[in-house]
Design a protein that fits this description.
Blueprint: E1 2-3, H1 6-26, E2 33-39, H2 43-59, E3 62-68, H3 74-86, E4 92-95, H4 105-111, H5 123-130, H6 139-150, E5 159-163, H7 170-178, E6 187-191, H8 198-203, E7 207-210, E8 228-231, E9 235-238, E10 246-249, H9 254-257, E11 263-264, H10 271-292
Helix pairs in contact: 1-10, 2-10, 6-7, 6-10
This protein binds NADPH dihydro-nicotinamide-adenine-dinucleotide phosphate and 5,10-Methenyltetrahydrofolate.
NADPH dihydro-nicotinamide-adenine-dinucleotide phosphate (NDP) binds near residues 140, 163 and 165.
C-alpha cells in the first residue's frame, strides 16, 4: 500500500510555481493576482479561504480577500464581481461556495468573466472541459488528476467508480477520468443517492473516488484488493480531545480500507492540499494567458 501524499505532491507544485513567479519578476512582469470572495462567516469556508490566501503568499502571488455580510443582496454581489472583472490586475476570481440560500449560485458564477474563472465553474469553461479543450479545470478534480500523475498511477482501461455527481467534484471528475490521455481512459461509473447496488459497483472499481460527504461511508467490504482509493470527503465532527474542538473525517473508513489498497489518499493531507495547488496553477495560467500570450 502506498499513500498518495497530497501535502508532498502539492509542495512540489508550489515549488515549481515559485520558480515561475521568480521568472516573471526577472522579466519585469506582473505576478498572478487572485481575488477570493467570502460571503458570511461559515467556519469551514473561513478556513479554506484563509488556506488559499496563505498559499498565494507562499508562492509569491498577490491575493485580495473580499468579505461580504451574510445578508448581502445578489445585486451587490454582482457589483463586486463586475468590479473584479474590470480590474486589469486581477487574474483569478473565486467565489467561495456555498453561498447563503437567498443567492443563486449559478447566477453569480455566470457573472464571472470566464477568462478569470479559475474555479472552472462558468458554463463556458464546463463546456470546454467536456469537449476536452484547454480551460480552467475545477480545482478538486484537477488536483486529483495531478496527484495521480505525480505518483504515476496507471489509469488506462481501469474501471473508475465515482461516488457523487456534484458540479464541483463528482461530475467533472467523471468527465476527466473518462477523457482520453493520461490520467484518463477509464471506464467510469457515476454513483449518486439513487444508485442501486452501490456496494457491488464499488467492489468492481479499480479506482474509487469517494465524494459524497458521508464520514467513513466506504468500508473495507466495498473495496476490492489492490484498488486505488481517492477520498475527497471532509466532514468536521465534534471531538473534544482536539484543540480545535473537532476532527476531520473522510468518506472512507481509512483504517480498514487502507490495507487492501494499492494507493490511498489520507484525510487530511490528501486531496485538500492538491485542491489548493490546482487553484494556484489555474491562477498562474490565467495570468500568463491574459497578459503575456
Ligand atoms: N478535499 C477537497 O478539496 C474538497 C472536499 N469536498 C468534500 O467532498 C464531499 C462532497 O462534496 P460536494 O461534491 O460538494 O457535495 P454535494 O453534497 O454537493 O454532493 C454530494 C453527492 O454525493 C451524493 N450522495 C450523497 N449521499 C449519497 C449516498 N448515500 N450514496 C450515494 N451517493 C450519495 C449526492 O447524490 P445526489 O446528487 O443524488 O444528491 C451528490 O451527488 C464533502 O465532504 C465536501 O466537504 C468538497 C470539495 C473540495
Ligand atoms: N468556489 C469554491 N471553490 C472551491 O475549491 C471550494 C469551494 N468553493 N467550497 C468548498 C470546497 C472545499 N475546498 C477545500 C479546499 C481545501 C481543503 C484543505 O486544504 N483541506 C486540508 C485540511 C484543512 C482543514 O484543516 O480543515 C486537508 O485535507 O489536508 C479542503 C477543502 C474547496 N472548495
Amino acid at each position: 500500500m502506498q499513500i498518495l501524499n497530497g501535502k508532498e505532491a502539492s509542495q512540489s507544485i508550489k515549488d515549481a510555481l515559485k520558480l515561475n513567479v521568480a521568472q516573471l519578476l526577472a522579466e519585469g512582469k506582473k505576478v498572478p493576482h487572485l481575488a477570493a470572495i467570502l460571503v458570511g462567516n461559515n467556519g469551514a469556508s473561513e478556513t479554506y479561504v484563509a488556506a488559499k490566501v496563505k498559499a498565494c503568499e507562499e508562492v509569491g502571488f498577490k491575493s485580495t480577500l473580499v468579505r461580504a455580510e451574510e445578508s448581502i443582496t445578489s445585486l451587490k454581489l454582482l457589483d463586486i464581481i463586475r468590479d473584479l472583472n474590470n480590474d486589469e490586475d486581477i487574474d483569478g476570481i473565486l467565489v467561495q461556495l456555498p453561498l447563503p440560500k437567498h443567492i443563486s449560485e449559478q447566477e453569480i458564477i455566470n457573472a464571472i468573466d470566464p477568462d478569470k474563472d479559475v474555479d472552472g465553474f462558468h458554463p463556458s469553461n464546463v463546456g470546454r472541459m467536456v469537449l476536452g479543450q484547454p480551460t480552467f479545470i475545477p480545482a478538486t478534480p484537477y488536483g486529483i488528476m495531478l496527484l495521480l500523475e505525480h505518483y504515476k498511477v496507471e489509469t488506462k482501461g481501469k474501471h473508475a467508480v465515482v461516488i457523487g455527481r456534484s458540479h464541483i467534484v463528482g461530475r467533472p471528475m467523471s468527465i476527466l477520468l473518462s477523457g482520453s490521455g493520461y490520467p484518463g481512459n477509464c471506464t467510469v461509473t457515476v454513483c449518486h443517492s439513487h444508485t442501486k447496488n452501490l456496494e457491488e459497483i464499488c467492489r468492481s472499481g479499480d479506482i474509487i473516488v469517494a465524494a459524497l460527504g458521508r464520514p467513513e461511508f466506504v468500508t473495507a467490504e466495498m473495496v476490492k484488493e489492490g484498488a486505488v482509493v481517492i477520498d475527497v470527503g471532509i466532514t468536521r465532527v465534534v471531538d473534544p480531545s482536539k484543540k480545535s474542538g473537532f476532527a476531520l473525517k473522510g468518506d472512507v473508513d481509512y483504517k480498514n480500507v487502507a490495507p487492501k489498497c494499492s494507493f490511498i489518499t489520507p484525510v487530511p493531507g490528501g486531496v485538500g492540499p492538491m485542491t489548493i495547488a490546482a487553484l494556484l496553477k489555474n491562477t498562474y495560467h490565467s495570468c500568463v494567458k491574459r497578459n503575456y500570450d
